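User: I've been going back and forth on whether these two constructs are worth ordering. Before I decide, could you fold them both?

Assistant: Sure. I'll take them in the order you sent them. The first construct and its structure tokens:
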Amino acid sequence: MPNVFFISDHHFGHGPIIDYESRPFDSIEHMTETMVDRWNAVVGKADRVFHLGDFSFLNKAGTAAIVARLHGYKTLILGNHDRGRSRTWWLEAGFDEVSEFPLVYGGFYMLSHEPMYLNKHMPYVNIHGHIHGQKYDSPQYVNVSVEHWDYTPVAFETIHGLFRQDEEG
């Protein structure tokens, strides 16, 4: 059975993000190669990856070249920096599926680019990106921005395990 992974906010081709988020890279090329290598180190060709937005600032050819190198069946949920381009643009760049709206995974996990409003009585967890190095102080939110996971897609089992620990503890 394929594994499922989540990740967001790669910002491929966006040089200023290195300084904005204090990323440990000395160039765009170094950032790109490291993030592609870390993706492929954990994601197999048959695995599924939900990218929760802000994938690339490159043109279609540059974006497609990166997408083609990444393992797995790739679903993109559009982020604020992705929305200037159509769903068709992203599909032509190599994503297998593209959603303009949040998705529900496993009946319990709400996948979105930006954190969604959840009150403490809602029985859901929001897996999101957008806020990069920041983090909400609530067990209902899991930030999968690359800065929180060493620039590596995080396995669903890891996220689900966070909630099993809460139930057992």
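The second construct, handled the same way:
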Amino acid sequence: MPAGIRLCDLSELAEGPLGFDPFNEGQDSVLVILRDGNVYAYTDVCPHYGNTTLPWKKNAYLNNRGNRIVCAAHGALFTIENGLCVSGPCKGESLTPVPVIIENNTVWLVTSRAGENEL
């Protein structure tokens, strides 16, 4: 088992992006998206203002076309592949990437570096 927190099976992401509360804080703090065989993960916070979460309801992270991550509060649009804001009040800023790894078709949130104690 990797040094991290299990988020989901890779197959669960086939239906669309998912939000997770890996640290049991009471709300999702990480979003994970599978796109063209690649997994992308970001903190579930819009860079425009404080701690505003992105979706208007659970797992509603994409715009109507399904090609951009959207902040429901501000209307900002972010590219899936690198989290860059391409439209909205935080244009040019980016979502904060979260390190994940895929092992045995399971998505893990990386929480320590090699050589450190595991959880």
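Notes on the second construct follow. The CA atoms of residues 89 and 96 lie 16 Å apart. Residues 4-110 form a domain with the Rieske Iron-sulfur Protein fold (CATH 2.102.10.10).
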